[in-house]
Design brief:
The protein has 319 residues and is an alpha/beta fold. It is 40% helix and 19% strand.
Length: 319
């Protein structure tokens, strides 16, 4: 069987092979099918957050989530509904700036992010979450409000399946706009290379968190962006500003490494201070592994919040 057509083998595909599938919606559905197949076999399967209530079993639910004790008492098929699954509105903030159009290994960061964003939309939709999209570059280009209306996934995927069009990355604008519109206890996932001045991030990130939102920043980089070692003097053009720069190979590598590390550490410090999850990923790594990393990280954070609430209810635990 062709592994591209078999969801069970999607975890074995490198991104270049997966991105050969031209249809973004098909690519996303196949990836989320493969991801969920792998999830059922992983230690993450069956992980439960804080129990909230029961809901009737419906076609498509995992039979292993059925509460058989409740069935014995009531003769009704029900599954447990957990607090972090209740009334959640999820927004994907996707960076369409010019820097996302860079790629050194046969595809661009944007193509990678489009696939991950579409896959996340499908996954969250299957979890019965309302999903929305904010497309941005130097400004907010389009907002698709989070909803579960018919055709929502198709609208999101259609908008995702477009080219980079803006210039610079301006993250404070979409973060501020979402902070003002999204209801408390929402989930915000930012997909970007975060190649932007860090002073744009600190205030709006804290504003979003202060309003009770859960925020996850997924930083996508091309492998070539982590190191820079030209063999001879070159003139480069900034992808976002169009500015020409002369690069001296003697000093370029060291300066680039220092500035890149300073920016990376600064971004990590801002996210840690605001209580924001940060995942850094390169486009040469499997997309399904990124999905597993995101879910594992999120579930550990949920477990921490659940344990904290339980400790608070019990008066701080044993002394």
């Amino acid at each position: 069987m062709n592994t591209i057509n078999d969801p069970r083998h999607l975890g074995q595909l490198d991104p270049e092979a997966l991105l050969q599938i031209k249809n973004l919606e098909l690519r996303a559905r196949m990836l989320v099918d493969g991801f969920q197949t792998g999830l059922h076999r992983s230690p993450l399967h069956g992980f439960s957050v804080e129990f909230d209530e029961y809901r009737p079993y419906s076609v498509g639910d995992d039979p292993r989530s059925l509460d058989w004790k409740l069935f014995a008492r009531s003769d009704r098929y029900c599954v447990k509904k957990y607090r972090d699954e209740t009334n959640r509105r999820c927004y994907l903030l996707v960076d369409f700036s010019r820097s996302m159009d860079f790629g050194s290994i046969g595809y661009t960061k944007l193509q990678y992010v489009q696939t991950i964003a579409a896959t996340l939309a499908h996954y969250l939709w299957r979890q019965r979450d309302a999903v929305g999209l904010v497309a941005f570059d130097s400004q907010v280009r389009e907002v698709i409000p989070a909803t579960r209306r018919h055709g929502q996934l198709q609208r999101i995927v259609a908008r995702l399946d477009s080219q980079a069009s803006g210039s610079a990355t301006q993250l404070d604008l979409p973060l501020r706009q979402i902070a003002e519109t999204i209801a408390p206890r929402g989930l915000i996932i930012v997909l970007s290379d975060f190649l932007t001045p860090l002073d744009q991030l600190e205030l709006p990130t804290n504003l979003v968190r202060a309003r009770g939102q859960e925020v996850c920043c997924i930083r996508i980089l091309d492998p070539a962006e982590q190191t820079f070692a030209p063999k001879s003097a070159v003139t480069l053009r900034d992808a976002e500003t169009g500015k020409l720069m002369y690069v001296d190979p003697v000093t370029a590598s060291k300066q680039y490494a220092e500035r890149f590390a300073a920016h990376r550490n600064g971004l990590a410090a801002i996210c840690e201070s605001a209580g924001v999850e940060l995942i850094e990923w390169t486009t040469d790594r499997p997309l399904r592994d990124l999905m597993m990393e995101w879910l594992s990280s999120r579930q550990h954070r949920i477990a921490g919040r659940t344990a904290s609430r339980a400790s608070s209810r019990s008066g701080g635990g044993a002394r």
